[in-house]
Amino acid sequence: MVLGKARWFDLLRSTELLKLMRSTDQFRFEVEALEKGSWIVVDEYFRLWWRIVLLEDSQSDRD
Q1: What are phi and psi of 61, to 5 degrees?
Q2: Residue spans per domain, the chain
Q3: Are 41 and 2 in contact (CB under 8 A)?
């Protein structure tokens, strides 16, 4: 089973989401550390994307 060995980023888990939001380079570091050809699954990517968009909007409103 290929996906059983995949690196999962489950963004429904608040701890996973917060870890990636606090350190924007964390995702890249973890992916680059994987063996070449490894599978990566980002579950609930849309959730992270919306949080980033909302954060940028709120910051631009302050400027």
Answers
A1: -65, -30
A2: 3-62
A3: no
Return d(Cα 48, Cα 24) in angstroms, integer. 11
Nearest to 48 by CA among 21, 27, 23: 21
Please name the residues in contact with 60: beta carbons below 8 A apart, sequence gap of 6 or more: none
User: Between these two residues, 61 and 46, which has the higher pLDDT value?
Assistant: 46
10 DSSP β-pair partners: 43
pTM (two decimals) = 0.60
Name the pLDDT band for 34 (thresholds 50, 70, 90).
very high
**Could you give the C-alpha distances from 30 to 22, 40, 57, in angstroms and in order?**
14, 10, 28
pLDDT at 17: 81
